[in-house]
Amino acid sequence: MGKEKLKVLFLSAEAVPFAKVGGLADVAGALPKAFRALGHDVRLMIPRYGSIRSNQFAFEKLGKPFPVVRGPGEELVHLIHTTTADDVPVYLLWDEKYFSARERVYGFDDDPQRFAFFGRAIIAALPHLDWMPDIIHANDWHTAIVPTWLAYEGRYLREYRHLASLFTIHNLAYQGISGRLILTFARMDYVKHLDVEPPGQVNWMAQGIANADLVNTVSPRYAQDILNPAVGGDLTTLLEQRQDRLCGVLNGIDTDLWNPATDPAIPQQFDLSTLQMRAVNKAALQQQARLPVRSDVPLVGMVTRLDYVKGIDSLEPILEHALANDIQFVLLGTGQPEYHEMLQALQARFPDKMQLFLRYDEALARRIYAGCDIFFMPSRFEPCGLGQIIAMRYGAVPVVHKTGGLADTVIDYHEQPDKATGFTFTPFSPEAGLDGLKRALRVFRSRKDWQALQSNGMKADFSWTNSAKKYVELYRRALELHAQG
Ligand code: ADP
């Protein structure tokens, strides 16, 4: 098995620079690049959404459109190809009904059909690529249909039976549950009902876990957390059964794309040796947020989807108390309407201390990472989390709930003062969250200690290199397990 070059097809619903909703896109944009740097042939496959315009990328059509099954009928799909600036070949599946006619990635009533169709299109596309992978790396429920199909049908077909599969759980909170008619739609009625699935329903996340050769999560701690019913929920028993095939590999970030020394989106570029120049970014952020421009006041920032799993409901009681102190708070995020309303009501009460940006804005996200003092991430659960990692790289000190990848990446000031990169709190409660923030606010007053926290975070290695090597080991193990049958 040794060192031969692996051929991997990486499947994702979103990928930087084509379409991004959250961290999955960052991973799908960065990890294939890191594999290629290790000498492997990794290619990416994503849907072509309407938002991915042909004038932004050099697209080339490959061959003729091919039919993809859909219920009793078929739909024609075009295969298009491009290569990223980092030399990663990318295949995009272009249909007229489910993807290219819509701008958004998720959030449609027919998402189960859309992604079942994406899965069937991937399977149908493989013989048209002029290239056959050894490994299918499926990510989250949107692509779980592929390892499921391989386990039931592909294993009996000459062109597909060699394909080993790795299924990565980026977030167990989104499972892709729908009625079993989806199997008729995908022409996969043979898929067995799993004990953990609700009666008459299919849970694609569960199917991916049950059918892939190997399964991993995006941090070691989260691989443990999901064995606890409080996090694993209905899937805990299945995950326990698959424990010998389950592990965690910590996400990294693309350190070229996330680099405060070169980031064109921030007003003042800086690195560790010019850390004092970071103050320019803080002032610019305060100005953009229409808050008093003051260097002495601690500025707390958040960049987040506004979702239950991110602990947004805990913000109301936390901020009510925290904003009574001399602090400022900025939040960039979008998501559930009830959270938009709750945050707007809070802002109305603290207009000179808090500013909201309720939208998706990549450049502003970067300015927040580069300008805030404290990056707050009170996620209820967190498979890995990239926000806190980016924050540390940009010299902001994270305050996080000690769960999943947050626990694996942030070293608490009071636990290990010398190595500390931030503050972790537990349990998940407004009191503990407030306490975490208050501890950070106290240390903020000591310039020397604060700079040590910033410096430790900026020096930490969150590049993909180590994790990509671990994935290569997983690919090799998946191939071995697959060969054993
Ligand atoms: P998740 O994938 O659960 O959303 P992560 O922390 O893993 O959480 O990744 C979030 C990614 O999405 C980060 O790159 C973050 O900067 C980005 N992001 C989240 N919300 C926004 C927003 N409103 N505008 C710009 N970027 C955002």
CATH class of the largest domain: Alpha Beta
Structural class: alpha/beta
Percent range for helical residues? 25-40%
CATH homologous superfamily caption of the largest domain = Glycogen Phosphorylase B
Shape: globular
Distance between the termini: 17 Å
Task: Please work out how many helical segments DSSP would assign.
Answer: 17
The averaged pLDDT comes out at 97
Total strand count, please? 17
The biggest sheet, with number of strands, parallel, antiparallel or mixed sense and barrel status, is: 9 strands, mixed
Supply the key terms:
35% helix; 485 residues; Rossmann fold; 6-stranded parallel beta sheet; 17 helices; 9-stranded mixed beta sheet; alpha/beta; binds adenosine-5'-diphosphate
Tell me about this structure:
By secondary structure, the protein is an alpha/beta fold. The protein folds into two domains: 7-252 and 465-484, Glycogen Phosphorylase B (Rossmann fold, 3-Layer(aba) Sandwich); 272-461, 3-Layer(aba) Sandwich (Rossmann fold), CATH 3.40.50. The protein is built from 17 helices and 17 strands. It has helices at 23-37, 111-125, 145-152, 181-185, 204-211, 220-225, 229-232, 236-241, 278-288, 315-322, 337-349, 362-371, 387-393, 404-409, 430-444, 447-459, 465-484; strands at residues 7-11, 41-47, 60-70, 73-83, 89-94, 135-139, 164-169, 177-179, 201-203, 214-217, 246-248, 299-306, 328-335, 354-357, 374-377, 397-401, 423-425. The strands form three sheets. Strands 3-4-5-2-1-6-7-10-11 form a nine-stranded mixed sheet, with helices on both faces. Strands 14-13-12-15-16-17 form a six-stranded parallel sheet, sandwiched between helices. Strand 16, helix 14 (404-409) and strand 17 form a beta-alpha-beta unit. Helix 9 (278-288) crosses helix 12. The longest helix has 20 residues, at 465-484. The two termini are 17 Å apart. The chain binds adenosine-5'-diphosphate (ADP). The site of adenosine-5'-diphosphate (ADP) has 20 residues, from helix 1, strand 12, strand 13, helix 12 and helix 13. Adenosine-5'-diphosphate binds at residues 22-24, 26, 171, 303-305, 332-334, 360-362, 365, 384-387, 390.
